[in-house]
Amino acid sequence: xxxxxxxxxxxxxxGDGHAPRQxxxxxxxxSDFGQHxxxxxxxxxxxxxxxxLTVNPVDGSEIEPCPPAERPARPAKLDETGRAExxxxxxxxVPPGPAQPTLPLLAREDEREKLVRLLxxxxxxxxxGPAGSGRTRLLDVVAGDCADLAPDGVVRLNGHRRxxxxxxxxxxxxxxxxxxxxxxxxxxxxxxxxxxAVVVLDDLExxxxxxxxxxxxxxxxxxxxxxxxxxxDPSADSGVEEVTLDGLDRAAGLELxxxxxxxxxxxxxxxxxxxxxxxxxxxxxxxxxxGALLRQRDRLRAGAGAVDEFGVFEDVRPDAxxxxxxxxxxxxxxxxxxxxxxxxxxxxxxxxxxxxxxRFAVALGGEVPHQAHLPALVGDTHADAALGxxxxxxxxxxxGSRYRLAAGVPAQLEAAGYADEAEAQARAAARxxxxxAGHPSVTPERVCAEADAVLTALxxxxxxxxxxxxxxxxxxxQLARAxxxxxxxxxxxxxxxxxxxxxxxxARLAGDVPEQAYFHHELGVLALCxxxxxxxxxxxxxxxxxxxxxxxxxxxxxxxRALALVADRxxxxxxxxxxxxxxxxxxxxxxxxxxxxxxxxxxxxxxxPTDTPLVVHRTAPASAxxxxxxxxxxxxxxxxxxxxxxxxxxxxxxxxxxxxxxxxDNDAGSPSDNVGVNPSASQGVDDxxxxxxxxxxxxxxTGEATSRPTDPGPDGTPGTSDDPTPTATGSDExxxxxxxxxxxxxxxxxxxxxxxxxxxxxxxxxxxxxxxQxxxxQxxxxQxxxxSEPPASSEPPPxxxxxxxxxxxxxxxxxxxxxxxxxxxxxxxxxxxxxTVI
Length: 838
What we know:
CATH class of the domain at 76-246: Alpha Beta
CATH architecture of the domain at 76-246: 3-Layer(aba) Sandwich
Number of helices: 24
Strand content: 5-15%
Helix content: 25-40%
Largest sheet: 5 strands, parallel
Distance between the termini: 98 Å
Shape: globular
């Protein structure tokens, strides 16, 4: 059933019984026998500053720069009809039941005239009075007197749990027609500076610098603040006038009591009211509640034929004896103690639905649920009339467009035991609000109207959150997940932030990682809209890390898009700001690895070959920040960083090749010639060598090898090779030129005619002596070769002693052959393969 209407909503009926069911198509007849598809998620698209925000309750909100075509026009001010509608929405709803008599405003003429006079002169005034002094009633009367003073009329606001920024946005929406648009801070100030209105602001909760900020942003407005004495005072140079509201005198108190009872007072009742006036210091709220006590006493004395005030509540007091039993019994006046704290006695004489409503209000910190929610919460179809009972007794008072428990009532009810089951009541209210706020038919504006009750339920239940199972979902997480998107779509962003933080904490305590990732994503988007880039980056990185662990691709993509927008706004590329879960590698790099921090400066210029091999080891200083470079690199775009890294890699490879070619020779005893390129095909499975060819043992000071293993041929004997693809890297003999090209004056190597194309894996294993050092592709630094330059000779090389045809083949792909790719006979003194004899 639709929570907004009582009629059935499926099959297209409106509740009037006249709309027949539409016949479905032939192909969809079978779907009626199964479960109906769930309602689509409510997505809302709005503009925040220069961002286009799509509120997505499923995967998280999406944010992008607003296209010019999507930007709304400059907001226009509301006309008289629109202002009247806004003013009507700012007032609390009229409680159901018979209309209650309006009590007069007594002994407040001097304060009323002074407030109107100051506001007419454009001055801002602060009306200070204790709770229950009739401050709200006086503000309503003064607002009616000032209706024609300002061009934009009178704007009514409520400051309960509202900051200065919240009130500025409330003022903007009360005067301008700007649906689904939230201006940024600068544009907001520009708009509110043009507002000329009398702003009646009740329940103000801040002063000092925050109040000065509100006044400076609205120079054309005259404010009438209503506050309590415990709120900080305005600053000395704010120019706010101060008006104090005291209690009523004795005569005014007795007159107000007579209006509340609806008859004259007896002598005993006057004496009793005099004691009450002395005890309450003349607060009007106490006389309103005392009048309710006297009316209840009159009903108890009326007899069996009397009908209660509303005519529908026969169970005014189920535990009391029938009226005819007390007809002859005189009901005494309440004691002075009961009159000083009348809430328990008043509640005991109300209906069961009213008492249940009070229990919910106590559990929700004094917030009374809207009358439309009372039937579902209480379990009584007529429970909405309970609000009228509570208002007539003075147990609730208006607060903006809602009702709250009156001053002093929550403490009195808690002492009477109404808070014994507060946790159960708050949990029931949270489950109801979670269902209601997530229903697609409920508008975001209605959810924002219940923001105080929803946030109170979250605040009460969040510390009680524990780890839950799939069969027992967490109530706080469900409520925050349902209400947060509605708060965002309703432009109540302070409530949005509070709901997200409560949901994130509850999800963390419950161990619900997917929901925790959602709340962090939403907090990051909210911070981005508010211009808090550092906080936005932290929240989005946390969300991306959690969603990456969950393999949530759609959520991760949405998070990375928002994070890219943060990087664009902050001017810091993503490459310089590692995301959550990524670790920056250590800054120790070798010459063969690409430098991680741009173009290296440790590489030498390309020089002619020298006698000493060059191996560069670079270690970044410990004081350098990880993942960042100097200030000049911050402005590089991501593509520039990729290009710089590619260039650095090319320089590193060229430097390595040139250095190896310059520092090598043809000496068979060079340690670099002892490295074989064949993989583990030449070794056994269980020989403990980890699949690498062991290096030969070095002996003597001259660097000559004492023993060298030979690569087996196809028949298992050394001297031949079946590796069809000789390579230049990792060879026993370094090349004379880069990239395997032939030097103009150098010797030419020839391929063997007996080479085979069998893969290396077909070679039978052979035993090799263990090695004490793993193979490496770098020239050793501990023992330089005996000669850094190859012997220069202009004579052609003599024929090789091997059994191969030694015809020169300059175009052969084996110009830089290795011992594994072109092995020859061991006449040259090597066992791993023969070299061309010069």
